[in-house]
Amino acid sequence: MNVTAHTLHAALLTLSLTIAACDGRQNAGETPAGLEPAEVITVDGSSTVFPITEAAAEEFQRAHAGMRITVGISGTGGGFQKFCRGEIDLADASRPIRPTEAAACAKAGVQFIEIPVAYDGLAVVVNPKNTWATSMTVAELRKMWEPAAQGQIMRWSQVRAGWPDRELHLFGAGVDSGTFDYFTEAIAGKEGQSRGDYTSSEDDNVIVQGVSGDENALGYFGYAYYEENRDKLKLVAIDDGDDANGKGPILPSPETVENGTYRPLSRPIFIYPKVKSLDRPEVKSFIDFYLTKGIPLVREVGYIPLKDREYEIVRRRFNRRKTGSMYQGTDSHSQMTLEQRLAQ
Amino acid sequence: MSTTAPTAGGSAGRHRPRHAGDRLLSAVGLLCMLLALAALAALVYDVAHDGLRRLSWQFITSYPSRNPERAGILAALVGSLYVVGLTAAIAVPLGVGAAIHLEEYGGRGRVSRLIEVNIANLAGVPSIIYGLLGLGLFVRAMRMERSVLAGACTLALLALPVIIISTREALRTVPKSLREASFALGATKWQTIQYQVLPAAFPGILTGLILALSRTIGETAPLITIGALTYVPFLPTDIWSPFTVLPIQIFNWVSRPQAAFAENAAAGIVVLLALLLLMNAVAIVLRDRFQRRAAG
Amino acid sequence: MTRFRTRTIVEFAIEKALFLCAAGSILVTAGIIFVLFFETAAFLREVPILEFLFGTEWTPLFYDKHFGALPLMAGTLLVSAIAMAVALPAGLLTAIYLSEYAAGGVRRVVRPVLEVLAGVPTVVYGYFALQFVTPLLQSFVPGLAGFNALSPGIVMGIMILPLISSLSEDALHGVPNGLREGAYALGSTRMQTALRVVLPAAFSGISAAAILAASRAIGETMIVAIAAGQQPRLTLDPRVPVETMTAYIVQVSLGDTPAGTLEYRTIFAVGMLLFLSTFALNLVSHWLRNRFREEYA
């Protein structure tokens, strides 16, 4: 047979295989049951939590051959949207699930378990060549970042008198990011309240690159990203004006985050597994792995582990399949410690 | 007014410029050309310098990792090959078929002209627009989600105009006399195409196909738009699998600020360029082989 | 059935199948236009078109929403202008050199090598811009930020240079020798011939090349996504982060955009803007090229 016939045959064969594969599909978004011993475990959400989940997924896949886990970084908000549509098994989140998101999940029949996995201190960073901004107050951060600053506060000298009259280049989280939600609520008082004229990205690496390459830059992201890039960045100490928990400006560090003096920018970060996915043995075993062998990874990537007894309570809640969020009704900045909340 | 007059045959450039302005223009032109070549050399040197020391068997056979020394491009490499293979399976029959129609059957009618203009325009549409089409049509409307199939369909649309144009060029090189001789012997139109025209044009068609597909391997933007992931530490098992490809893995590593990941990105680029070089070399070798066979 | 009848049916079927393949390409264009149009129309129902086209702030995802696409257009134009400023003179001069001065052997070697520049994947160029060109520029350009428009602009210029040089060279080559010989006969130097006779004659072909290159620059994504930044900013300063239309689409795609929301529609509205501008440029380029061919065919 000649070349044309060969080509046509090959094309027809491929086409028919494709159509056959189409028929095998049951519903959109799910691979056919029984085709593989372990389906892909899909994770998506916060880029703050990503380093921990990535580490846990990597170690889990090395320990158990054949396991397949994908981890995306659509941002906490993006992750919850996918989660409440039932598209992913696990949502990474750097803030608790909102009541509206929980309602959307309930409406779609998606049940979840809220699992805090670590503490994070939101680090405010500047370029190492920045000699003037060694500390800032919450009020100054608010002046810099609130919606009214859009188009108005464009120079360092406008934030604090005495600072140089240089352009202010801001880098921060994108709107789908839990870091964004947390920062805006802690600094501007309400979630989502931020100016829009800055370099925004759900990928914290972009913020690191931006700040490290620009003398006039300031940015914020999860503490782990500072740890990873110490040689390129400089931390700004934050003064929350409340002497009761630490006098004066405080730098974030594992100690200050753990003992609560780094305020208001300390927070727990979470993972949210879908209850229905826990029926799959591979998903359950991954979460078990996360909450046991994954704990040392928390410090390795630069976050602060919860206290041992807090992890015990978390594990117990998981094993008992305690669904729902601990943060319904109250705002996440109330003075309850995590341990108190977990005990509820 | 100058008195120097170079002999006729001007543009073959065999004469050294004698007038001062002549020499200046020639020098400036030469300088620009050398600068362009120097830029290419700088690019290759920079990538090779950063990437070659990272390149190793371990790098090629490892999965992505948070640890740059452990990270590798296996998933991306296999993903790229898988996606390009599927893209070829979709785009080649459609593209070659369309080109055959336009060259052999198409009249000078308005529909044919419209299709021709349309294809020429499609070839110039930015690749990210194809990504948007893929997002709206394949991922959302047809519910393929972030699968190899959605990626391949999107890239197939991107490659189609290029394949059609290059196949048409190849078909045009076949002399009319060949077709007419075939008709004179009583063959039908399709028999002529199948047994005479296509084999004769085959080397050119093949070269065009491989070049079009090698451009597809380097495409990043459309796949990002349809949602290809960056952390995929396994090989795709079927057309519905999530996947990643070489350019996206490189993009992910470039975006990470740690210097060690920049090395990984450079090594990934070396692999990508090597793959492209391989494909282009295969194209040239195959074309020469078939040309020799046709001539002999 | 006779073999003749079978053959006729087969012939007919094949002919129609091939026609469908070709006509399918129309479906692709229709698909692009439909998808873009549908979502843009939905977008424009909520955002007035004047604000979209002429507004100066682009913060569609934030609390204080503004949907003015001018900053994105400015970012795109700034980077593309820098790219053209690099590629047009360099590419044209290279083309003049190769066409009018260089020996045949040089042309045969240099042209394919320049084609290689055009074939390098754009993500590689993005890497080059961020890792090599930006630090290099930072050493002598004051105040150059890590993300800026200058570095990707220059690299993009390098990328489109082969396009301008090879298409311009084709145009210059297409000018009949008779014109050159006439000029030489009147005593012109090579430079006078090249600049005053050949170049004007090839003008429409060269403009076609330049416009096509500009269209390519406008539609380029990865170089700017990696090296130009993600801050929509209405500025002409090439040293600061900007955001192009293409980089915005990538930025939003990297997050999550549920279908049907206004945020999802913004990427299609911006995509529509991008599509229309490159489409218009490509049409002008083709028209110029056809006119050139008619003049000298």
Q: Pair with the most extensive interface?
A: B-C, 104 and 103 residues
Strand content of chain A: 15-25%
- Write down the Rg of chain B: 24 Å
Oligomerization: heterotrimer
Look at the structure and give the CATH class of the largest domain in chain B. Answer: Mainly Alpha
Structural class designation of chain A: alpha/beta
Spans of at least 5 consecutive residues with low confidence of chain B: 1-14
Mean pLDDT of chain B: 84
Helix content of chain A: 25-40%
The radius of gyration computed from the alpha-carbon positions of chain A, rounded to a whole number of angstroms, is 23 Å
Order of helices and strands of chain A: HEHEHEHEEHEHEHEHEEHEHHHH
Question: Domains counted in the coordinates of chain A: how many?
Answer: 2
* Distance linking N and C termini of chain B: 57 Å
Helix content class of chain B: over 70%
At the fourth level of CATH, the homologous superfamily of the largest domain in chain A is: Periplasmic binding protein-like II
Average pLDDT figure of chain A = 82
The CATH architecture of the largest domain in chain A can be given as 3-Layer(aba) Sandwich
Question: Mind telling me the CATH superfamily name of the largest domain in chain B?
Answer: MetI-like
